Amino acid sequence: MTEASELTDDLQARLDALRSEHRDLDAAIDQMLRIQLQDDLFIRRLKKRKLLLKDRIRILEQMLEPDDLA
């Protein structure tokens, strides 16, 4: 396996992990709102973490996209 291939595999694995965490946070937030848990500060922190993950996901997706210089 080449170094570039290993890097791509590592980035893809990280991207998959971030997407999974993002989905888990989304489900947790939905559940908390559904049961009307009134810990607004905790919910805000979860939402902030979710946005951070979304930004990291976007960065990794851009890194994995092939260049369109052809």
Task: Please outline what is shown here.
It contains 2 helices and no strands. With 70 residues, the chain is mainly α.
Protein topology:
Layout lengths: L2 H32 L5 H25 L6
Helix pairs in contact: 1-2
Share of residues in strands = under 5%
Number of domains: 1
Please estimate the helix content.
over 70%
Instruction: Tell me the total number of β-strands.
Output: 0
Q: How far do the termini sit from each other?
A: 25 Å
Averaged pLDDT, please?
A: 90
Order of helices and strands: HH
Number of helices: 2
Largest sheet: none
Instruction: Work out the radius of gyration.
Output: 16 Å
Principal-axes geometry comes out as elongated
**SS-based class:** mainly alpha
Uncertain runs are none
Keywords: Coiled coil
Coiled coil: 1-63
Pfam families: DUF465
Protein name: DUF465 domain-containing protein
Describe the structure.
- This protein is mainly α and about 70 residues long.
- It has one domain (about 5-65).
- The protein is about 80% helix and about 0% strand.
- Helix 1 packs antiparallel against helix 2.
- The longest helix is centred in the first third of the chain and has 32 residues, at about 5-35.
- It is elongated, with a radius of gyration of 16 Å.
- It starts with a helix and ends in a 6-residue tail after the last helix.
- The model has no long low-confidence stretch (mean pLDDT about 90).
